[in-house]
Specification:
CATH superfamily of the largest domain: Alpha-helical ferredoxin
Largest sheet: 6 strands, mixed
CATH architecture of the largest domain: Orthogonal Bundle
Strand content: 5-15%
CATH class of the largest domain: Mainly Alpha
Helix content: 25-40%
Number of domains: 2
Radius of gyration: 23 Å
Number of helices: 10
Strand order of the largest sheet: 1-3-2-6-4-5
Distance between the termini: 51 Å
CATH topology of the largest domain: Fumarate Reductase Iron-sulfur Protein, Chain B, domain 2
Order of helices and strands: EEEHEEHEEEHHHHHHHH
Number of strands: 8
Bound molecules: iron/sulfur cluster, FE2/S2 (inorganic) cluster
Length: 303
């Protein structure tokens, strides 16, 4: 539930001019400040609340630079001292996948979201919220462990036994490489899961008397009952197409056709629309669907 923290600043007057004014020549002047409202949450399971901030405008900022300014000031727009906002980021170049959040209502990467463009979309204020399908750890930081658990479920790796020299691997044709490469660019950002109507939030709260191991086991069981997500389906297809990865293709198909598997996909195609890497997720889903059908029929005849 969201608790509204409204303060004097909203009645106007106190803040600096944030809206671009037109200097008589028809061109919008750069705003002097950027206003941002952030949906905050102090700890897992707690109530969330809005807090508003104002920072000086600098050309070519991204959302991470805004958050750095917000953290450095640790003051809300009405001058109250507040705890610095928490968020995740690492690579700052859309590679690590850790900075995903809802920016002006759309799931995207904070490091590649440019403030000038966002202001064009939303007027004088930018809205930041944590992803809604993953449990909040604090403020904009979410727990993405379900995303990685889904990759485990479909065994999204090439099985290699030890580090012995097995000699050169099988050759892969340039056509197959070209086909596989886009799938290999997945950055585990979670955007496809956030946008998917079939992927619903699963939040498991640790009990007071529960050991870390018992909590992890309970989390895994809960995650495994939910939809695996487009990223995992696509990774399963990537590794089933690999000459060595193929060795456990049946195990991946088994996972994809069990509880929470590909049969849950409603083909709404929201996933492909929001993927920052433009991965052909619907192509992977169609391939996985066909492979799963063939595999299920084969299983009947193998009995
Ligand atoms: S196509 Fe499937 S995975 Fe993608 S958004 Fe729709 S239901 Fe989710
Ligand atoms: S498939 Fe795209 S949206 Fe989904 S986790 Fe990978 S990079 Fe992100
Ligand atoms: S910081 Fe790595 S993807 Fe944004």
């Amino acid at each position: 539930m969201i608790k509204a923290v409204e303060s004097a600043e909203h009645s106007g007057g106190a803040g600096q001019q944030a809206v671009a004014d037109h200097g008589g020549n028809g061109h919008a002047a750069a705003p002097r400040v950027v206003r941002v409202r952030i949906l905050r949450q102090d700890a897992p399971g707690e109530e969330s609340y809005w807090e508003r901030f104002e920072i000086p405008y600098v050309e070519n900022m991204n959302v991470i630079s805004i958050l750095q300014q917000v953290a450095a000031r640790a003051k809300s727009r009405d001058g109250r001292r507040v705890a610095p906002v928490a968020w995740d980021c690492n690579c700052l170049e859309e590679v690590c996948g850790s900075c995903t959040m809802l920016i002006n209502g759309r799931t995207r990467m904070a490091c590649s979201a440019l403030v000038d463009k966002l202001l064009e979309e939303s007027g004088d204020e930018i809205e930041l919220r944590p992803m809604s399908k993953f449990p909040v750890v604090r403020d904009l930081v979410v727990d993405r462990s379900r995303l990685f658990r889904a990759l485990e479920r479909v065994k999204a790796w090439v099985p290699v036994d030890g580090s012995y020299d097995h000699g050169p691997g099988p050759r892969i044709s340039p056509e197959s490489q070209e086909d596989a490469y886009p799938l290999a660019t997945c950055i585990s950002c979670g955007c496809c899961m956030e946008a998917c109507p079939q992927f619903t939030k699963i939040e498991v709260v640790r009990r007071e008397d529960e050991s870390a191991e018992a909590f992890e086991a309970r989390k895994k069981t809960a995650f495994d009952a939910g939809f695996v997500g487009a990223h995992a389906i696509s990774q399963a297809m990537l590794f089933n197409g690999h000459p060595t990865g193929k060795m456990i293709a049946d195990e991946r198909l088994e996972a994809l056709t069990s509880q929470g598997g590909i049969q849950m996909c409603g083909n709404a195609q929201n996933c492909v629309a929001v993927c920052p890497k433009s991965i052909p997720l619907t192509r992977s889903i169609a391939r996985a669907g066909r492979a799963a059908t063939v595999w299920a029929i084969r299983k009947i005849f193998d009995r």
